[in-house]
């Protein structure tokens, strides 16, 4: 399948982060064209394009926009740059390489939904990326792309760059809005959805960085053009963040539907050190593990869901034959325990107990009933938590127990990690 | 220690910039940490005064977010990710090496006050360059013992870095003097 990069096509251009260079490669022409259109027509265009949100859930972007109640103002656009899912680093890459592309997407989305004040919520750890956006916003303001009466078209738009301060939960859209309002980043009950009652109680759209980056090209080339790329239910491309036991880790933009095998073997150069593939995980820390038999599944929301995992935020974590699956799951569980906001009991207490149990497997003190106890705790978190953080904390460990239960057994019978032992023996 | 005048001015600007002054809490906390290196109880009371909000509100927010420090740390902040993608590329060995080279345990500050280091389970967004660390929020990727030695040597010699003047609301008129360093992310192959 030929690769048709959309978002990254100009990334080889030197100094693309500068406004003049971005403009020379066609930058802001999408926004200019959008300003010639009626906002409602833009919403219809994006609906027709089939663009689905790239933040994780894959909700159709145009539909999200169209849920805003008519006649209620002000309304807000918030760009979610709180990328914190372990395994993902694509938003960082998109911002670093072309901050103006992100900004142009935000301006198009803002105009389409009738918003005059947009926000970028960026995670606190992304300091150089915050600086890159800060420079881009200042440049765009000077050039008249944002401010009052933009490009003489009578549209006012301002963008506030808001830096978070270290909380994974703020990537969840309602927690993000709560955080943006200055509170502890705890999620809110849905409904009402942000489209109806979001930031400051006003209609709000939250879109991921990669989602808005698609907008300039869709406006310029049309819905049909975009729909023709990818799969019938997954138009366009995605930027896949590849990490773990792979020869060439990094970001790769591929057309949706490309087989996972092509991403791992061709683009990533295959599993490192000539080792065998044991498992991989599409979507990031939250998502269920897949096995070598799933290599021919396409990179697409629906295809990956059918295979038993989720495409999530577009991470691909590759694990070779030497990986201790128990320890990998332990890290993720400890992460969710660390990041649980504490609002609801199943997640706050459940992740704590799961983390303790995983520690006991690694330490060699796990008892025979502990595997089922882990499953039981997971069952009592999933579907019973206030927001997806709790649910997702159980998906990877439960899938690992399903496929690699014998490794848990070995940790019990050998009173510790058999993988670490074999490494130590090999060294000795 | 009362807040410096420019910090107070920043906080007041922020309060006017957002539709709700409460949204200025997190950027105000960044401004305080930028000036004083951490966020003291006294500083939170001062923020409350300038924003005309109850101090409990500022404290509730500040304690929730892991990047706000409640006590002073070393001049340089070193954080190493040990989440699964970094674990797969040997992050545990990197942690052990840093501990040995710095001679202080995870979470502590070196005797000369130069470096505070800790490992974290929180993914820092550089899995493609694992194993990695952040030094004052700057990415150091594809770490090896030799690279770590060079980084530590630099940190011990470096004077106090110019603290990042960021996250306090972007300045509407002038672009910052310093251009961000060209990122080290890998290019997409195509």
Task: Please specify the SSE layout and strand pairing.
The complex is a heterodimer of chains A (428) and B (190).
Chain A: H1 19-24, H2 29-35, H3 39-49, H4 61-66, E1 76-81, H5 90-97, H6 99-113, E2 117-122, H7 127-142, E3 158-163, H8 173-180, E4 204-208, H9 209-213, H10 215-221, H11 223-227, E5 230-231, E6 234-235, E7 237-244, E8 250-255, H12 260-267, E9 277-282, H13 301-306, E10 315-320, H14 325-339, H15 345-363, H16 370-381, H17 388-413, H18 418-427
Parallel strand pairs in A: 1-2, 1-4, 2-3, 7-10
Antiparallel strand pairs in A: 5-6, 7-8, 9-10
Chain B: H1 5-17, H2 25-36, H3 41-51, H4 55-64, E1 76-81, H5 84-88, H6 91-102, E2 115-120, E3 133-135, E4 138-140, H7 145-157
Parallel strand pairs in B: 1-2
Antiparallel strand pairs in B: 1-3, 3-4
Structure in words:
The complex is a heterodimer of chains A (about 425) and B (about 190). With about 425 residues, chain A is an alpha/beta fold. Chain A folds into three domains: about 20-230, 3-Layer(aba) Sandwich (Rossmann fold); about 230-320, Ubiquitin-like (UB roll) (Roll); about 325-425, NADH-ubiquinone oxidoreductase 51kDa subunit, iron-sulphur binding domain (de novo design (two linked rop proteins), Up-down Bundle), CATH 1.20.1440. Helices cover about 45% and strands about 10% of the residues of chain A. Chain A has helices at about 20-25, 30-35, 40-50, 60-65, 90-95, 100-115, 125-140, 175-180, 210-215, 215-220, 225, 260-265, 300-305, 325-340, 345-365, 370-380, 390-415, 420-425; strands spanning about 75-80, 115-120, 160-165, 205-210, 230, 235, 235-245, 250-255, 275-280, 315-320. In chain A, the strands form three sheets. Chain A has a four-stranded parallel beta sheet, with helices on both faces. A four-stranded mixed beta sheet of chain A has the order 8-7-10-9, with helices on one face. In chain A, α5 (about 90-95) crosses α6 (about 100-115) and α15 packs parallel to α17. The radius of gyration of chain A is 22 Å and the shape is globular. The mean pLDDT of chain A is about 95. In chain B, strands 2-1-3-4 form a four-stranded mixed beta sheet, covered by helices on one side. Chain B is of the alpha+beta class and about 190 residues long. Chain B has two domains: about 5-65, Orthogonal Bundle (Arc Repressor Mutant, subunit A), CATH 1.10.10; about 75-155, Glutaredoxin (3-Layer(aba) Sandwich), CATH 3.40.30. Chain B is built from seven helices and four strands. In chain B, α2 (about 25-35) crosses α3 (about 40-50), α3 crosses α4 (about 55-65) and α6 (about 90-100) packs across α7 (about 145-155). Residues about 170-190 of chain B have low confidence and may be disordered.
